[in-house]
């Protein structure tokens, strides 16, 4: 690896490291763009494929759950065998899955392709921060993370607008397919660049403890099966009238999660390497923080699922207009995140309290707007102030929250704790969409013909769904106080273990042992 510095770069940063960073962030851009661009395409997918309401929930929930479940095993495989080819494999699979999403001819094909896409994203995203941590010396690592933060902000903000423009230009029938295919040129170029620019054999130094027992595959199977068993009835139950099998499936999901916990305890007692170290939950504050992560992400990731369907299917607005609704939230998030580290050092936990409080106020405000405004008169301007407020709060919370949660455990446990939090955030996203989708479509009853009846019905359902999102936010606000008032030493968690994306996607630690 050449050590020639890039002009203008900080001393000590090799040219190859900055070149590799471009490749890594191309993959990051693609994964994060896909988390926000798809929301505006949901009504088009519903129309084009005659998709069920449950399918719309699966498109988001399936991706989020698969992404979260892949994080820890992917990080560990990269630690042991090198992150370059884990990144390459995940990126290649993500690109192929994007192609498959756009080629889908029915609900099932799209759901399967979307789940594979989520698994692939969970495979390669951990490699991004792992390689940054390993390739950049401490003096310049902060600059690399700052560049990454800018890419995160741009990609998440661009998603809804790009999606809206594509559907506006190419129509409902083909536009949503191109929303997925926009990943293809980025993915192909990034794959070629990975081969030539990303250094091979990037793994943890020999001085770092790495699991000798590999991944806890049985634990992964148990928790995956348990979470799927819980999600399936939440998503499908309302659509099918809550038949008896949904009750049995929920019960089976609970039993599988309990079996997972018992298995993890037994692995730990044998001095093995459990997927989720049980002793972490001996810290009550950590347990509260994990629940906070789940509840908060359930609250805010469901906002634009609700708004996008209301705006297009209910109010008859275009996909572009739906995409433009999210701009105030994106701007608020970028502004809040840019100040969050500085404010966290000054205010400690208070910045998290303020952040969740602003999100809660924003969601209640949106709920009141939907409740009190005549459905056909709703416009982007009605939601601009509350969405900006909620975005600002989200920016305050998302960037520093992991460091506060992980600070509730011993420093030696930071890697495992960070991985658990990252997974719970994705599970929270999946559960939030499942619950909100069930509420939205479960209360949807169109009582007559015409645009006014349609707008009234969808606005009523969106109001109910937003009330649930606000309820999640209120619960999250109460849980924030479980966290420590301050993180010792301006952050006791290594940078690679505490960075978060502006869209709420964790960039997890790659060490879980």
Automatic annotation (TrEMBL):
Disordered: annotated span: 494-513
Alphabetized GO MF terms: transmembrane transporter activity
Pfam families per UniProt: MFS_1
Cellular compartment(s): Cell membrane
Domain Major facilitator superfamily (MFS) profile: 20-488
Matches recorded under CDD domains: MFS_MMR_MDR_like (cd17321)
Segments traversing the membrane: 21-42, 54-73, 85-105, 111-132, 144-167, 179-205, 217-235, 241-263, 284-313, 350-368, 388-409, 430-451, 463-483
UniProt keyword list: Cell membrane, Membrane, Transmembrane, Transmembrane helix, Transport
Predominant location category: membrane
A GO-annotated cellular component: plasma membrane
Record membrane topology: Multi-pass membrane protein
InterPro entries attached to this UniProt entry: EmrB-like, MFS, MFS_dom, MFS_trans_sf
Record's protein name: DHA2 family efflux MFS transporter permease subunit
Originating species: Cryobacterium gelidum
Phylogenetic lineage: Bacteria, Bacillati, Actinomycetota, Actinomycetes, Micrococcales
């Amino acid at each position: 690896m050449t050590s020639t510095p890039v002009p203008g770069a900080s001393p000590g940063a090799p040219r190859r490291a900055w070149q590799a960073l471009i490749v890594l962030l191309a993959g990051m851009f693609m994964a994060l763009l896909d988390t926000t661009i798809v929301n505006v395409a949901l009504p088009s997918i519903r129309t084009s494929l005659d998709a069920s309401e449950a399918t719309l929930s699966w498109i988001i929930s399936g991706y989020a759950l698969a992404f979260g479940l892949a994080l820890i095993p992917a990080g560990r495989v990269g630690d042991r065998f090198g992150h370059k080819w884990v990144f390459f494999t995940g990126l290649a699979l993500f690109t192929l899955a994007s192609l498959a999403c756009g080629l889908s001819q029915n609900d099932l094909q799209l759901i399967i392709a979307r789940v594979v896409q989520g698994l692939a994203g969970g495979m390669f995203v951990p490699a991004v921060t792992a390689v940054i941590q390993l390739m950049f010396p401490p003096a310049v690592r902060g600059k690399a993370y700052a560049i990454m933060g800018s890419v995160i902000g741009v990609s998440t903000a661009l998603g809804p607008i790009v999606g809206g423009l594509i559907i506006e230009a190419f129509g409902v029938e083909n536009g949503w397919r191109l929303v997925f295919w926009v990943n293809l040129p980025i993915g192909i170029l990034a794959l070629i660049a990975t081969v030539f620019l990303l250094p091979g054999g990037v793994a943890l130094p020999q001085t770092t403890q790495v699991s000798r027992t590999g991944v806890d595959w049985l634990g992964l199977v148990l928790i995956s099966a348990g979470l799927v068993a819980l999600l399936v009835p939440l998503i499908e139950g309302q659509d099918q009238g809550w038949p008896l099998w949904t009750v049995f499936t929920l019960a089976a999901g609970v039993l599988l999660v309990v079996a997972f916990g018992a298995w993890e305890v037994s692995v730990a007692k044998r001095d093995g390497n459990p997927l989720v170290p049980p002793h972490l939950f001996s810290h009550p504050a950590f347990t509260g923080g994990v629940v906070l992560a789940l509840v908060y992400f359930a609250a805010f990731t469901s906002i634009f699922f609700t708004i996008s369907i209301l705006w297009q299917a209910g109010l008859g607005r275009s996909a572009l207009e739906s995409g433009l609704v999210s701009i105030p939230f994106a701007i608020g998030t970028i502004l809040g995140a840019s100040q969050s580290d500085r404010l966290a050092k000054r205010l400690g936990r208070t910045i998290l309290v303020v952040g969740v409080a602003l999100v809660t106020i924003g969601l209640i405000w949106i709920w009141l707007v939907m409740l009190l405004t005549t459905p056909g008169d709703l416009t982007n301007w009605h939601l601009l102030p509350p969405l900006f407020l909620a975005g600002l709060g989200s920016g305050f919370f998302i960037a520093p929250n992991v460091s506060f949660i992980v600070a509730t455990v011993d420093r030696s446990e930071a890697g495992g704790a960070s991985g658990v939090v990252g997974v719970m955030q994705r599970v929270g996203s999946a559960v939030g969409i499942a619950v909100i989708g069930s509420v939205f479509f479960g209360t949807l009853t169109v009582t007559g013909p015409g645009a006014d009846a349609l707008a009234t019905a969808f606005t009523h359902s969106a109001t109910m769904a937003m009330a649930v999102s606000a309820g999640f936010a209120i619960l999250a606000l109460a849980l924030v106080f479980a966290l420590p008032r301050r993180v010792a030493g301006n952050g006791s968690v290594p940078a690679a273990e505490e960075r978060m994306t502006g869209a709420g996607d964790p960039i997890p630690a790659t060490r879980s042992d």
